[in-house]
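This part of the workshop introduces the protein records we will be handling. A record pairs a protein's sequence with a compact description of its fold. Backbone structure tokens are a discrete shorthand for how the chain folds in space. The question running through the whole workshop is how a given chain folds. The record below serves as our worked example for the rest of this section.
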Amino acid sequence: MKMSISDPGNGFWTLHYSTDLANWYPFQAIKVNNSGYAVNLHLLENTPRAFYRASYDAAQQTGSNSVDQSLLLPALADNFSNPSLPPHFLTPRIVAQDNAPLNNPTTDAGATLGRVLFYDKRLSANNSVSCSSCHQQEHGFSDPRQFSIGFEGGATRRNSMGLTNAKYYQRGHFFWDERADTLEEQVLGPIQNDVEMGLTLGELVSKVAAEDFYAELFTDAFGDDTVTSNRISRALAQFVRSIISTESKFDLGRASNFSNFTAQENQGRGLFNGRGRCDTCHGSDNFVPNNVFNNGLENPYPDPGVGGITGRPQDLGKFKVPSLRNIALTGPYMHDGRFDTLEEVVEFYNSQIVDHPNLAPQLRDGRPPRPGQPPQPGGPIRLNLSPAERNALVAFLHTLTDPNLATAPKFSDPFDYGD
């Protein structure tokens, strides 16, 4: 039998037992971490039956709360700062995509602090959601819902983008409309959003500083226990940049000319880099461009995207293009989560692109130039892929999934929730 305690206040509780429901005895002290705790209960020896209850007493709420009491961190810090990267991640093209600023290099202690903050529900107004609520590890650090649910039950207006290989988005701007100039700026955005997490930066700092175990983590990361919003943003950004996928089937095949691929997967790879034109937007081994695009979802776009930030007509309907790393885990797809499956996405690019004045040139059929004139843009491309070719393209996209990243302990929830 298991007893579960739900306590958004993360208080100290006492578990009592009784054999007659009249006399109760203290049995175990419990500290609730991150709003929840569970304990397995067993019959006491030589007693016919036992009853248990948990009680909260305001007088108990004075105990300290150390790292060891609250978190399941390894004795030796995880390696976030110097991960082992395959040779194709060390090429000049990939190295140049790294958006980490010189004043915030990833350290083991900094990313560890960021990991704890990423999963801590105290970063929301009512301790109900964390960054990980909308960016779930098993879903490629995205959300399987079309729109995420905020701290008071409201829905976000866009789909949660996967975070895999965010380090290698060379432009360094974040959110679908790129309104955040850096990852350090982006990580504070949802915390302050009225729908998502609902805190001011002052409230954020006060809540984090009030939790005892953060003093040790901030000291390890920054040299003293001072909590600031700048340090919180730097630690969160370090953790997000450490989420790097290098062990997909694609990565394993990269060194052997993809001899590990099936015939269908190799056919899909050829289409991706050839007639399908996918690599024109998702280039490099990170499968991410250095640009924003209008991909012809509709005309007009109800969501103006980048155009809503810049106010320029030529930016309407343009959005950040995410990496395809772990794409099989991150559905639904597009900024509004309109497509549930990769099959739907492939069919859209195959036959459904809508003409728009800002449609990316890569998605148009060019017309032969007239003498003395530049090439004329044509209408939206129609790839005319056969069903077998579309299936092959989907099979290739599945090779970009890194199953180890989806389960790696170093990227998982570090809080101790009991049994």
